[in-house]
Design goal:
This protein is an alpha+beta fold. It contains seven helices and seven strands; from the N terminus they run E-E-E-E-E-H-H-H-H-E-E-H-H-H. It is 36% helix and 21% strand. Bound molecules: zinc ion. Zinc ion (ZN) binds next to loops.
Length: 244
């Protein structure tokens, strides 16, 4: 069986037979990969915690006809432990993993930008970004991951006619903010500070994020959640656990 190496973030695991697991990975070079880890559920397993969700691992895999098999795993960054220390971090991180899997739907289609974005967001989540909490790290990740997937939201110019903003109407189905002429029924009207914050979360302007008020943060999280839900067919299970 041909072997290959790659690095990956573990997204999810599920049981296979008596002692094995199927590990869902977002790899750097091979996109989404589902691979078997043999004996991982035995107490004497040589894998330890290396194949737990959130862990950034360096892997060797053997190609199989349906599923590949993990033959070696070395921890690059043990995000799992740090993420698990704090409930808000954990719930935000869980949404990230689920979103990554949903946005990179095709297996073995390279998705290097999604991999880098996820690894970077987990690093920021664990380190704690000055002046922001897990919710802002999550919202920024979601906006960027959606953008990489081809659903970039517009928070400056009108999403329909391009008229320069700021604009006060927002509609997820229209792709962002709308001017008074283009506004459609069912649009929400977030506060001006909220739209500024959303734009900062998308571009990674962390100074503006750090200066934002709790009210704008809450409203921005609501807008991001609505935008994400619009672009994923079903809502995310894990989103229900994030404090909004
Ligand atoms: Zn317009």
């Amino acid at each position: 069986m041909p072997l290959y190496r790659d690095e990956a973030v573990v997204l999810r695991t599920h049981k296979l037979g008596e002692a094995d697991r199927i590990i869902t990975l977002l790899t750097r070079q091979h996109g989404l990969v589902r691979a078997v880890a043999r004996g991982v559920r035995r107490t004497s397993s040589r894998w330890g915690a290396r194949l737990e969700p959130f862990t950034h691992v360096d892997l060797q895999l053997a190609e199989g006809r349906s599923l590949d098999t993990i033959t070696q795993a070395e921890t690059v960054t043990p995000f799992a432990q740090k993420v698990g220390e704090d409930y808000d971090r954990y719930t935000a991180g869980t949404v990230m993993l689920e979103t990554a899997e949903r946005l990179v739907a095709e297996e073995k289609e390279p998705a290097v930008q999604q991999f880098l974005l996820l690894a970077g967001a987990l690093r920021a989540l664990v380190a704690g970004r000055e002046g922001s909490d897990p919710a802002q790290v999550l919202d920024s990740y979601l906006l960027r991951a959606l953008s990489v997937a081809g659903y970039a939201p517009c928070f400056d110019g009108c999403a329909r006619c391009g008229l320069e903003g700021p604009h006060r109407w927002f509609n997820p189905g229209m792709g962002g903010v709308l001017c008074a002429t283009c506004r459609v029924p069912g649009s929400s009207s977030p506060a001006a500070e909220t739209v500024t914050l959303l734009s900062a979360l998308l571009t990674g302007d962390w100074a503006t994020v750090a200066a934002s008020e709790p009210r704008a943060r809450r409203e921005a999280s609501g807008v991001v959640g609505a935008y994400l839900a619009w672009h994923l067919e079903r809502g995310l299970r894990s989103m229900a656990y994030v404090e909004r």
